[in-house]
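Researcher: Here's a chain I'd like modeled. Treat it as a single chain, no partners, no ligands.
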Amino acid sequence: MAYMVKNPGLMPSLESLRGGDIGRKRSMVKEMLHGCWLSCVDADPASGAPFVADAIIANPPSFAHVHCAQALSIPVHIIFTMPWCATRAFPHPLANIKQKGIEPANANWLTYGVVDLMTWQGLGDVINGWRKQDLELEPLNASMGPGINSYLRIPHTYCWSPSLVSKPADWGPEIDVCGFFMRDPPAYQPPPDLEAFLSAGPPPVYVGFGSIVLEDPARLTDVILEATRRCGVRVIISRGWSKLGGDSPSNQHVFYLGDCPHEWLFTKVSAVVHHGGAGTTACGLSNGRPTIIVPFFGDQPFWANVVAAAGAGPRPIPQMEMTVERLTEALQFALSPDATRAAAILAQKMGQEDGVATAVESFHRWLPLEKMRCEIDPSRVARWEVEVKGKRRLRLSDTVVTTLLAEKQIKKDDLHALKSKEYNTDVQRWDPLSGGASSTLGMVTDFTTALGGTFIDPFRAYKLKRKDGSSGSAGGAAMMSAAGGVGSMVGVVTKGTLVDTPLALAEGLRNIPKLYGEEVKNHGQVKGVGSGSVVAAKNFGHGFYDGLTGFVTQPYKGAKEEGALGFLKGAGKGTAGLIVKPGSAMLGLMAYPAQGVYKSIRAARGRKAAVKKSKSDLLDWKAPVSDVQIDTRQVCIDFGALSRASK
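Model: Modeled as a single isolated chain. Structure tokens:
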């Protein structure tokens, strides 16, 4: 929290850079990513019950979300309190970019890309290292990593009131705005001194900054006391983590408060002053209280401006600009009839919303339920596939699989982990020049990294073994590490030459027609040897057919739409297509099967030991009888019927 107060924006301060804060935060993110993965596959620490996630709900700054979902082949849903999807309606809350010489709407849109790019610049290597080590996934390309959520169209649900910030028109159907998540008011019995203070006069103003760590809490306390004195209002000051007020006692003008639920307290006050967290903002507005926000970092300036735009509070007061005069002016605005009326209207609209129920509906709507239900017992979630008669795979739950194994209807070797949602993170190439250059640069970078590891890794292995064993074992470990480095170099060159470069050229040529507005056929995703051959055949057929026919039809189509000029445009498009489409077709005959072979080899070598063990443990776990009651005979009958139907 102290770091965030010192560094409210994207760029760290010089003080933080000198103090080594960035290195420590990168290490913290690395540990967090590892922990997020374990939370998806580790057993319950209390009961020992095995666990593997069937779906993931996460927020954007957790960073692990889509990567864990890709490793497990399960759906992921992003739920958050501030906008993280590009829009022209408002800027990214974490971006502070001057909009000189550019349309505000375009500047707003660009801020999201800037935030994604800068975040990836600082953490991309950490995330890719974690993908390789923990998830056994390919590293993401720099063109894919920053905007992966947008590229994959990951469903998002934003939990703020649409009455306060409506869904922008340029957000797609996969993005919802559902309303604030409001909890039921907790049971609370106020202490006698608080009850006495509230009943001794008109409703006071509330001031509190929660867990914010203030540099000078004494000065801020003096500002609050003087501003409320000038306005002639009483005040409740929440001491918070910064201990506002120090050891000063309460009196008839001010009450110093410890812990107290906002849901109860905000019904007793006339206005609220706080840091602008989404939860506190929602609680104040839902109770119809005019709100003054003193933002420190993160999304707090965003909410401050939103409240001010709605008329339910004054313009924000940045914490560094907090003075008696500014706070006095803000209090006078907040206590005015106009602000009170605006806050009451917002509260009425928000009272008609049910953010939690709407968010649950949004989450369920985007689940691929047809791929997640057990085909024998649809009330249970499927986690396994079993191939029947070599035709197709049945989706089965843990309980059904356990029953069929016990009845010797299937063998464990017949089981495959279900993939309810797959993600294609293959790099998209727009033209052969940039695609080929990018592929070559990537190969050179990977080769250089492997070359460096050939010298550095043996030294590290030698030092590590010297601590635990003899010099002989240390020397052997160093030699093995060096051999691994040489193997990595050979692998990089082989993959770059036989897979990456031909694929980049084939995809680049295939996508050139997009540059002049032509739709490119989707040939499917390469997942292994079989699909690689299918994609190559499709691309070959489409490439030659579309290239030849387009040479004739494009000029005709252009002439029909735009006359002579259209004919010339069409002739240009047709000529270009005659070159690039068959070119992609020929290169694809080598590139796509090679990509399929590579993916099949990688899948065979990939262990994903944590996932396999956890899923296997699910079958061996002796759950309580009440959890596994099932009609064994009916399961076997249904399995037999489905097996026969698959012939």
